[in-house]
Amino acid sequence: MNLELRRIQIRDVVFDDVNKIENNVLYLIKSSLIELIKEDKKIKEVDFDIAKPGQSVRILPVKDVIEPRAKLNGEIFPGIFKEHMEESGSGITYVLSGCAVVTTGPIVGFQEGLIDMEGPGAEYSIFSKLINIVMDITKENYVDHHEHEETVRIAGIKLAKFIGEIGLSCEAYEAETYEWKSIGEKYAEYPSLPKVVYVYNCMSQGLLHDTYFYGRDSKYIVPSLVTPLEVMDGAIVSGNCVSPGSKTTTYHHLNNAVVKELLNKHGKELNFMGIILNPLMITLKEKYRNCMMSLKYAKMLGAEGAIISQEGFGNPTTDLMVTCQYLEKAGIKTVIITNEDAGIDGMSESLPDSVTEAKAIVSTGNSNATIMLPKVDKIIGRLPEIAKTTGGNVESIQDDGRLLVEIHGIMGSHNLQGNTYLSAMTI
Amino acid sequence: MKKIVFYTNQFFGQIGGEDKAYTEPQFHEGAVGNAKAFDGKLDDAEIIATFICGDNYYVENMDAVKNFIKGQLKDIEFDFFIAGPAFNAGRFGIACGDVCKFIKEEYNVQAITGLYEENPAVEMYKKDIYILRVGKSAAGMRKAVDIMAEFTNKLQRGEKLGSPTEEQYYASGKRINVFKEKNGAERAVEMLLKRLNNEKYETELEISVYEKVEPAPPLKDLKSAKIALCTSGGIVPLGNPDHIPAATAKIYGMYDISQKDRLSEGEFESVHAGYDPVYANKDPNRVAPLDLLRKLSDEEVIGEVYPYLITTTGNSTSVADATRMGKEIAEKLSEDGVDGVILTST
């Protein structure tokens, strides 16, 4: 399987009267975007804005962030728009780097977060460094919670695909090529390198806690083998999951940091054998089954080492720990990536569950730590919603307009695929 | 020039040995006793005063000694406080830890000491103050003074501290956020490669092993038992009157349910951010089953239902906060003569 990613670096985004990319500037016709999104009759109103790094702008409540991508002669985000689908991960895919689609609007649930485009909050989010095309969606009154989530999710993906397709005629790209061979070929190719697998945990627990695999709810799959190339082509889409800081957005899935690093080292220091997509379920019975199956696949792939990335916290910590325990007991050396909930003062135990086998942990920071964010000139979305979101509360908005939040409230602050520089240490 | 105040005991203050352990606190201007060992080692700072106190006197009269110190320091401005080092000396170690903690809280200046790792005062005070890692006995004085002086200079310069191991102090156990040069995924792959190559690696989080909570023995007589309903599922009266946060709750609410047969839609709701609340909002009894408890009470399977629903959101709540809330709730329920609790999670 071969995939060519054609990366177009976007250095500015402007509304204009033509949809095009010229000199790395993305031009968009606002009315064409509105028309596209309003094809869905469940959407009452939609508006667009652009937020750029360095601007005194705060976006909230953010539901998802998606990188614009499109396939030449194929379909990006397979299974989302049509019943019929083709396996993704081969051919040519265009990527509009440096920009993203951000969905906002009235809150669906507590799991939506904020993005600051400058100031101390911007240091915590990879999205603060992107030019964000912000879509503010208001649903029709009759649309219920579950439909609301779906409507906003699909609108975001649709817009990312639409904008991605503007890139298809652009020639100013840099190409990266990826190759993914069969298990047997890999064994033969690098017999002396340690064989490594990636256990890719994804939330599968209901409204705002779901993941979509080829457009289908991951609650209804058992752990599955996927390729890194499928991931890059949008086989995995976020159901706007979990709390903002530990949410794996669709952007994170498309640019999975663990996949990227394992591919970097593949054939040099390790032999990357495959990815096991592991849905994090709500019942203990399902957790045990999925952990068992993840181990089974790891063994089938000949794993000597494994990385487990996490999504969410609390009950998913059990999935993380049990999988780690199973792998270690089978002699597979394992490193896990997790955040911590060590309390506002950092003095509490960090995780709600543990196994002694978890002896190699990468921490993406204490999500309970608080940060005072300065007042900004412009809010895109709705500031008062901070009272209801994870990381915020009724006392978050200060009299002088500043905002006191836990870093949990900042989108992607402690991303559990390790797509953040944040960590924690004991002093 | 920064001003430093010093504390030492009767032995290092050159008053005498164990026979002088009841010496009352004394105040001296300038550096006295082992404070002199810091001469020439402190950058742009001098020891302007020394307190000396007998070890027995200190530990038996802690408040009196601190009052004395407070009185003496009334008109003195100072920037830093050094006590000890006390090596493995138990009483002296406690005196150093206690006086440093007091100075830090009272005067808002840094106060440090140096102790041997087995000194019980390390565990008692490492959460409050910087305790430098020094040798077991006074034979290690020169090295201890070097470590403490260097650390003092670093803090005075306002320099960013390295890890506790690098700086040679006992970690307080506090987790602080830091930004690293490589992202988490890069660090994870690096750590895995080290493990696969049997090289030394360092985990970023030492795993804690938790105390196992033993299930309580069954109630002997259910028919006369008073049963309370308690949930970490975030079921609160509509509008969330106590503003219980959607995650990281540090509070719980108690709501009168004595007049209710069930928790009705539109009267109660879920404010928990960790699960899909749609079904709980439709029927809050799904999370906090008051309807079933009432049925059991009517059928005389249980004695009575405690009149309050106790609620918090168990979502990203730190173990420390959860433990504290659990204790508070248990005390309240014990006082009110509750025999058993149905505790639901989500």
CATH topology title of the largest domain in chain B: Rossmann fold
Q: How do the strands line up in the largest sheet of chain B?
A: 2-3-1-4-5-6
Order of helices and strands of chain B: EEEHHEHEHEHHEHEEEEHHEHE
Rg of chain B over CA atoms, rounded to whole Å, is: 28 Å
Largest sheet of chain B: 6 strands, mixed
Quickly count the domains of chain A: 1
Strand content of chain A: 25-35%
Question: Outline of chain B, from the CA principal axes?
Answer: elongated
SS content category of chain A: alpha/beta
Give the overall form of chain A.
Answer: globular
Oligomer: heterodimer
Q: Number of domains in the coordinates of chain B?
A: 2
CATH architecture annotation name of the largest domain in chain B: 3-Layer(aba) Sandwich
- Residue ranges of chain B: pLDDT <50 for 5 or more in a row? none
CATH class of the largest domain in chain B: Alpha Beta
Which bin fits the share of residues in helices of chain A?
A: 10-25%
Give a short account of the largest sheet of chain A: 6 strands, mixed
| Major beta sheet, strand line-up of chain A | 17-19-14-20-21-22
Would you give an account of this structure?
The complex is a heterodimer of chains A (427) and B (346). With 427 residues, chain A is α/β, with parallel strands linked by helices. Chain A has one domain. Chain A is built from eight helices and 26 strands. Chain B has 346 residues and is α/β, with parallel strands linked by helices. Chain B folds into two domains: 166 residues, Rossmann fold; 123 residues, no CATH class. Chain B has ten helices and 13 strands. A six-stranded mixed beta sheet of chain B has the order 2-3-1-4-5-6, sandwiched between helices. The N and C termini of chain B lie far apart (59 Å). Classes of the chains: A alpha/beta (427), B alpha/beta (346).
What keyword list fits this structure?
heterodimer; A: 427 residues; alpha/beta; six-stranded mixed beta sheet; four-stranded mixed beta sheet; 8 helices; 26 strands; globular; B: 346 residues; Rossmann fold; 10 helices; 31% helix; elongated
